[in-house]
Amino acid sequence: MNTATASNFGVAASAGGPLLGDAEFQFLRDFVYRHCGIALSEQKRQLVQGRLLRRLRALGLKEFASYCELLRKDPAGELGELASAISTNVTSFFREMHHYDLLVEQLLPRWLEEKKGGGRLRIWSAGCATGEEPYALAMVLAEALERTGSKVDARILATDLSPQALEHACAGMYALDRMGGISDERRRRWFLRGEGRYEGYACVHQRLRELVAIQPLNLLHDWPMRGPFDAIFCRNVVIYFDKPTKQRLFDRYAGLLEPGGYLFLGHSESMHGLSDAFDLVGRTVYRKRVS
């Protein structure tokens, strides 16, 4: 088959796997955009085929048409697995450290002082992936509570669409070579080193688990929580979305944040020209305007 003919019928199958045809790829593009807000360009076709081949094998399906039919019949049941397959969950503990520095040095001390009369402190890790971000937030929160002796009702909500990522986050077990962002002092304080079959891993301390509530959530669908939140971390998530989806999401975040609450984005993300509800107050740090 020559190159022109192959282009007409889709990306050539690799390693004897099934072909992702034009009709199936267009269905997947429409489905993913509608349910996940992710716009897949034609350049992503080979990536989609390669990643979904593993999913087809896991389900015992022989062709992409069968997978598309599965999505038509049970979109909710397979959505999380599809999102896991096509997105890249790259995360680490204390990624973009300047955000945590702001929390430790300014925001947490101020919030705990303001709320010591009986208020609640709530932080949302939206798109928490495998849990490194919410557990890092829990470390600095637990340390602030201990340092001040505060009895404030403080909790962190961690959500993600991917069932695989959430399973990892709930387990709270991490390979030692993935913990480079954590200081030796924090490793000793907040992790238990695995032994036996868990050699080479460490488990998060029970105190961190008590501070973090992990739940599945699709950011494009209805949200069961009402807030208000003092801060929302949505880092390296909106990079996948188009402009209208970002605008809707930022408006919804503004509706859940306290007046003067903070929204943290990833290092390559910006709210410029997308929302009038926030002011830029630091590197990828936005503060909700107080009307």
Describe this structure in words.
This protein is an alpha/beta fold and 291 residues long. Helix content is 45%, strand content 19%. It is built from eleven helices and ten strands. Strands 6-2-1-7-8-10-9 form a seven-stranded mixed β-sheet. It has a three-stranded antiparallel β-sheet with strand order 3-5-4. Strand 9 (278-282) and strand 10 (285-288) form a beta hairpin. Helix 2 packs parallel to helix 4 (64-73), helix 3 (45-59) crosses helix 5 and helix 4 packs across helix 5 (75-86). The radius of gyration is 21 Å and the shape is globular. It starts with a helix and ends with a strand. The model is unreliable at 1-14 (pLDDT under 50).
CATH class of the largest domain: Alpha Beta
Question: Radius of gyration from the CA trace?
Answer: 21 Å
Strand content: 15-25%
Q: Please summarize the sheet with the most strands.
A: 7 strands, mixed
User: What proportion of the residues is helical, as a percent range?
Assistant: 40-55%
CATH superfamily of the largest domain: Vaccinia Virus protein VP39
Total domain modules:
2
Order of adjacent strands in the largest pleated sheet: 6-2-1-7-8-10-9
State the end-to-end distance.
Answer: 64 Å
Helix tally equals 11
**Overall pLDDT, averaged?**
90
Short description:
The protein is an alpha/beta fold.
Structural topology:
Layout: H1 3-9, H2 22-36, H3 45-59, H4 64-73, H5 75-86, H6 97-114, E1 120-126, H7 132-148, E2 153-160, H8 163-171, E3 173-175, H9 184-190, E4 191-193, E5 201-204, H10 206-211, E6 212-216, E7 229-234, H11 243-256, E8 257-265, E9 278-282, E10 285-288
Parallel strand pairs: 1-2, 1-7, 2-6, 7-8
Antiparallel strand pairs: 3-5, 4-5, 8-10, 9-10
Helix pairs in contact: 2-4, 3-5, 4-5, 6-7
